[in-house]
Amino acid sequence: MIKIVDKVECCGCGSCANACPSRCVKMKEDEEGFLYPIVDDFDKCIRCNICSKVCPVKNLKKEEPFVQKGYLVQHCDEQIRKESTAGGAFTAIAQYVIECGGIVFGAAYDDQLQVVHMAAEDIESLKKFRNSKYVQSNTKYTYREAEQYLKEGRLVCYSGTPCQIEGLKAYLRREYDNLITVDVVCHAVPSPLIWNKYLEMQKEKLGKKIANIRFRDKYYGYKYSAMVITGENNQELYARGVDSDQMLRAFFSNICDRPSCYNCSFKKRYRVSDFTIWDCFTVYNFSKELDDDKGTTRVLIHSSKGQEVFEKIKSRLRYLEVSPEKLTDGVKEMFQSVDMNPKRQQFFSDAKTKSGKELFEEYFPCSMKVVAERFIRVFCAKTGIYSAMKRVYKAIVKK
Ligand SMILES: Cc1cc2nc3c(=O)[nH]c(=O)nc-3n(C[C@H](O)[C@H](O)[C@H](O)COP(=O)(O)OP(=O)(O)OC[C@H]3O[C@@H](n4cnc5c(N)ncnc54)[C@H](O)[C@@H]3O)c2cc1C
């Protein structure tokens, strides 16, 4: 039966809990807020060991090269593109699946603003999946649900982080022609406990009910995206960029990620999914026409099934074919795990005793430097010189 000796060995996909025929493997939260499997009823366990056999980390597949296709993509529906993290490629795939009578799984907020995987069966419901949530999503029992639909012959699209897609494939243990999988290039996934600390802080500071949070709102444009919090009636309560929002700063400082993210087994170019999607901030290197600061998705297609779907959705996209080599060149997050922040252990230890406000103010204070950087970034974004200034800055740092 599954036993996690070292936490680095578990990505938290939940494949084991989904697969257990006796329902005795459960995902339980540890003191850092991440889910790990435990066998909660030894009498019920029939020692079939399926839980170990479906673990994508324990049964790591060798990466084999195959033919791929690469594209830069922008959804033609500007509202969809605006609501999406990048160019809205995911929604285009998902719309096609729904129109074929299929069902789509992805990460969304529940009514407590917890990030969980759920299904959507109509076009309107796809909205909840748009925009990346930089928190580990709880897949719950969605692998089982997806399997049920697949067996019924319905078209299913399942999206998630690379470990969640590898987990689903390991759980299913066979190929389905009616399954389309989409993974993202993933920096790392932060702790749901730290997310709750952030929510607690924001609720206290704003003093209003939070209805929605967007990690990657295009408030100041795509290249300088912002955390935006809205209240009832879509009233805007808060907007801060990557330089000053404390959750985004925590995310990019690698202080609160899942232990397995620091040694991720799924950072690679040749993947088990049909599509890999990620950002394209350097769109000017590929096309001047597409460089409109409204968002572009890089799409890497791994299978003929993926290519067939792409042919069907082309009419709703502006796109440019790019060689997979050029598309993936220099994409660190695709190949390299993040480095653990040396303050990680202390951060989690403090999270046990400090309030959300105390924790974030101690580790990510709003110093003069932060205020100045924010002022400069907002000024550059508003005057339309953000991208050019960033390039100049990068060139100086490189020297
Ligand atoms: C945790 C995380 C880290 C990422 N890191 C990077 C990175 O380092 N570099 C980069 O270029 N791109 C990264 N991305 C991908 C990027 O943010 C966009 O998702 C991608 O560019 C697709 O944009 P889109 O406009 O086509 O889709 P969108 O409309 O933004 O669709 C979002 C998709 O992401 C899924 N999703 C959202 N949140 C989660 C979550 N918490 N867990 C699992 N799935 C989720 C949804 O189900 C949906 O399929 C990351 C995404 C996530 C979720």
TrEMBL record:
GO terms for molecular function: iron-sulfur cluster binding; metal ion binding. Keywords: Iron, Iron-sulfur, Metal-binding. It holds the Pfam family Fer4_9. InterPro entries: 4Fe4S_Fe-S-bd (IPR017896), 4Fe4S_Fe_S_CS (IPR017900), FrhB_FdhB_C (IPR007525), Polyferredoxin-like_ET (IPR052977). Residues 1-30, 35-65 form the 4Fe-4S ferredoxin-type domain. It comes from the Bacteria. PANTHER family: POLYFERREDOXIN PROTEIN FWDF, PTHR43193. This is Coenzyme F420-reducing hydrogenase, beta subunit.
